[in-house]
C-alpha cells in the first residue's frame, strides 16, 4: 500500500542523546567481492566488520559496496593513494590541501574551526588522526561544477556545528567512501549526496543530535539524478536523529544494509520519486514509521524490504521491485539481531587505527 506522509519535516533540534553502551566484541567480517567471500582488504575496511587489524597511520583499506565497483573509468575508491602524506591542524592548511590537484593523503590533527564549505577535489584521502580529529563550524563539499570531487575517502573525523551541510557529495562526484565518522548538530544535512553523484559507500558512521541526517537526491525537479546516485549505506547508527536515513529521490539501486535505527521521531527511510531501495538486515528500535513510500509532496518510490527487525516500531511500507545490488557486487548480511551490539561497538571515530 502506498501512503504519502503529509506532515512537514520538523525544524532542526538540538537535544542530548544518551551514550550508547559500547560492547567489547570480536566482530566477524562479512561482505563480498565478485560473487565470493570478501577479500581481506574489504574485511579490514569494515564491510561487515569493525577492525584495525591491518590499518596503519594512513588508514589503509578499501571499501565494500558501491564505492568498490569498477565503473566510470575508476576501479574502486583509492583516494589519495600514492600521493604525499601531509598533516594539517589549521583551516588554512586544510583548505589548501583538499583543493590541490593530484593525490594527497591529508591527516587531520586535532580540532579545526572552518567557515562555510571547503571544496575537495579528486584523489584525496582525508583521515582523522587518533580520536580527537574534528572539523567544526563548516563542512566538506566534494567537487564543484568545474573541479570534480571523484575518488575521495573521508574517515575517522568528527563533524559538528556546520553552518550548512557537514559533508556534501555533489556535482557528479563518483567513487566516494565515507567511513567511521561522527556527525552531529549541523544546520542543514549531516550527509547529502546529490546532483548526479554515483558509486558511494557510507559505512560505520554515527549520526546523532540532529534532525536531517542523510539526503540522497537534490530535489523533485532534478531529474538528471535518474540513473545515478547508486549508494550503499551499511552499519551506520542513526541515533535519535529525526529523519532522512536516507530520504531518496530517483536513485536505483540504493542498498540499506545492517544499519541500526533508534528513536527516530519522524521516520527511518523514505523512498520517493520512483527511487528503488533494497532495505535488508536492519534493526529498527522505537521507530513509529520505519519506511515510507512517498513523503511530503514527493511522489512514491519503490522499496523491497527483507530480513529486518522492527522492535517497538511500526509497519514498513513497501512497493514494487528493485534492481538487486548483487548485480554490482556481492555481500553477506549480518543477522539483524546482532546489529545493535555490533554497530554500537564499531561506529564512529577511534576504531580503525588512523
TrEMBL record:
Domain of life: Bacteria
Gene3D superfamilies in alphabetical order: Single-stranded right-handed beta-helix, Pectin lyase-like
Residue ranges constituting the Pectate lyase domain according to the UniProt record: 81-290
Keywords: Carbohydrate metabolism, Lyase, Polysaccharide degradation, Secreted, Signal
Signal peptide: 1-36
Molecular function terms, GO-annotated: lyase activity
Subcellular location: Secreted
UniProt xrefs under InterPro entries: PbH1, Pec_lyase, Pectin_lyas_fold, Pectin_lyase_fold/virulence, PEL
Principal cellular location given in the protein's record: secreted
Record-stated family: Belongs to the polysaccharide lyase 1 family.
The protein's name in its UniProt record: Pectate lyase
Amino acid at each position: 500500500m502506498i501512503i504519502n506522509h503529509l506532515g512537514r519535516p520538523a525544524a532542526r533540534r538540538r537535544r542530548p542523546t544518551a551514550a550508547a553502551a559500547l560492547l567489547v566484541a570480536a566482530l566477524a567480517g562479512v561482505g563480498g567481492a565478485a560473487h565470493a567471500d570478501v577479500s581481506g582488504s574489504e574485511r579490514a575496511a569494515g564491510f561487515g566488520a569493525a577492525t584495525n587489524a591491518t590499518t596503519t597511520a594512513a588508514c589503509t583499506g578499501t571499501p565494500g559496496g558501491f564505492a568498490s565497483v569498477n565503473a566510470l573509468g575508476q576501479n574502486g575508491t583509492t583516494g589519495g593513494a600514492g600521493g604525499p602524506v601531509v598533516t594539517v591542524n589549521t583551516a588554512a592548511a586544510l583548505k589548501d590541501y583538499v583543493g590541490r590537484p593530484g593525490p594527497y593523503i591529508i591527516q587531520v590533527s586535532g580540532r579545526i574551526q572552518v567557515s562555510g564549505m571547503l571544496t575537495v577535489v579528486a584523489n584525496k584521502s582525508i583521515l582523522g588522526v587518533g580520536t580527537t580529529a574534528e572539523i567544526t563550524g563548516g563542512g566538506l563539499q566534494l567537487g564543484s561544477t568545474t573541479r570534480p570531487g571523484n575518488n575521495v575517502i573521508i574517515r575517522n573525523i568528527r563533524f559538528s556545528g556546520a553552518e550548512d551541510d557537514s559533508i556534501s557529495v555533489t556535482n557528479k562526484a563518483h567513487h566516494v567512501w565515507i567511513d567511521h565518522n561522527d556527525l552531529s548538530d549541523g544546520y542543514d544535512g549531516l550527509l547529502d549526496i546529490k546532483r548526479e553523484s554515483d558509486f558511494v559507500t557510507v559505512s560505520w558512521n554515527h549520526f546523532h543530535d540532529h534532525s536531517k541526517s542523510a539526503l540522497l537526491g537534490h530535489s523533485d525537479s532534478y531529474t538528471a539524478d535518474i540513473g545515478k546516485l547508486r549508494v550503499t549505506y551499511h552499519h551506520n547508527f542513526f541515533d535519535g536523529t529525526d529523519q532522512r536515513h536516507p530520504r531518496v529521490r530517483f536513485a536505483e539501486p540504493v542498498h540499506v544494509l545492517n544499519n541500526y535505527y533508534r528513536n527516530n521521531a519522524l521516520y527511518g527511510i523514505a523512498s520517493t520519486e520512483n527511487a528503488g531501495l533494497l532495505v535488508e538486515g536492519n534493526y529498527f528500535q522505537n521507530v513509529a514509521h520505519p519506511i515510507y513510500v512517498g513523503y511530503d509532496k514527493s511522489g512514491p518510490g519503490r522499496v523491497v524490504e527483507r530480513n529486518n527487525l522492527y522492535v517497538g516500531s511500526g509497519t514498513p511500507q513497501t512497493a514494487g521491485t528493485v534492481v538487486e545490488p548483487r548485480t554490482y557486487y556481492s555481500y553477506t548480511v549480518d543477522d539483524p539481531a546482532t546489529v545493535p551490539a555490533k554497530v554500537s561497538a564499531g561506529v564512529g571515530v577511534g576504531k580503525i587505527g588512523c
